[in-house]
Design goal:
Layout (H helix, E strand, L loop, with lengths): L21 H8 L4 E3 L2 E5 L8 E6 L5 E3 L7 E2 L2 H9 L3 H7 L8
Antiparallel strand pairs: 1-2, 2-3, 3-4, 4-5
Helix pairs in contact: 2-3
The protein binds zinc ion.
Zinc ion binds next to loops.
């Protein structure tokens, strides 16, 4: 599929459908993930957390830390990966396998 050059952007390789399943991703990334059904909690990796303060939605991948001084939040596993590892958008998408490489 060809696109005119002017419509190309740094987002062009991103394929959201290739993002890992939130359940699989968070089970790998978060220690002591526990929960019921769609919601789970874990110790927050964005601050020195002693109790599970991070709430994650296992359907969408959205996450939020309920400690006001921390306040980490995002809407999907990609946002989590960017925040946790300090990566720009494209690098995080590539790390998660959600970036199409040209052949
Ligand atoms: Zn936190």
């Amino acid at each position: 599929m060809q696109f005119p050059a002017r419509t190309q952007s740094r987002w062009q390789g991103f394929d959201r459908s290739r993002l890992p399943d939130p359940i699989t991703y968070y089970a790998t990334e978060l220690a002591a993930l526990c929960g019921h059904g769609r919601r789970a909690t874990a110790r927050c990796p964005f601050h020195d957390d002693r109790h599970p303060s991070l709430s994650v939605n296992l359907d969408t991948g959205a996450f939020r830390c309920w400690v006001p001084a921390c306040g980490a939040h995002g809407r999907d596993v990609l946002a989590f990966h960017m925040a946790r590892y300090g990566l720009p958008f494209a690098a995080a998408a590539k790390a998660l396998g959600a970036w199409r490489t040209k052949t």
